[in-house]
């Protein structure tokens, strides 16, 4: 089993993906870079967790669009 993501970090990831869909996608490294450029005051660990969760959300969103 992997580590769980807290509700607060999930919420941040969902809001960021909803507000800036053109900046975030399925590439973890690019998401991490965008988060650091946004200067949200996230620690390195938190930034990586949020970037990874955004990747997961983006993949899920793409998969749902392919089903339709």
TrEMBL record:
- Please give the InterPro entries that the UniProt record associates with this protein: Ribosomal_eS17, Ribosomal_eS17_sf
Q: Does the keyword Ribosomal protein apply?
A: yes
Task: Name the GO terms of the biological process aspect.
Answer: translation
Q: Which residues cross the membrane?
A: none
**What protein family is recorded?**
Belongs to the eukaryotic ribosomal protein eS17 family.
This entry carries the following GO cellular component terms, namely: ribonucleoprotein complex; ribosome
Q: Look up and give the organism this protein is from.
A: Candidatus Iainarchaeum sp
Q: Which UniProt keywords apply?
A: Ribonucleoprotein, Ribosomal protein
Name of the protein this chain belongs to: 30S ribosomal protein S17e
Q: Which one of the record's GO molecular function terms can you name? A: structural constituent of ribosome
